[in-house]
Design brief:
Elements lengths: L18 E5 L4 E5 L2 E8 L1 H12 L6
Antiparallel strand pairs: 1-2, 2-3
Length: about 60
Amino acid sequence: MENRSWIRPSACSNAGNCPEVAITADAVYVRSSLRPEAVAQLNVSEWRDLVSAIRAGEFDA
């Protein structure tokens, strides 16, 4: 797997269970810090849809 620059939310700076994101020109990659080997690849449209759904509270329990 190619090297990617992974970033995580500032609220998770030292936590062990955080979402991590790597952005390239072609795609957005998402993984959990608990399972860094499990990476989801999204295109720009899918990423925008995911972020919009999160902001709208669609995944709130």
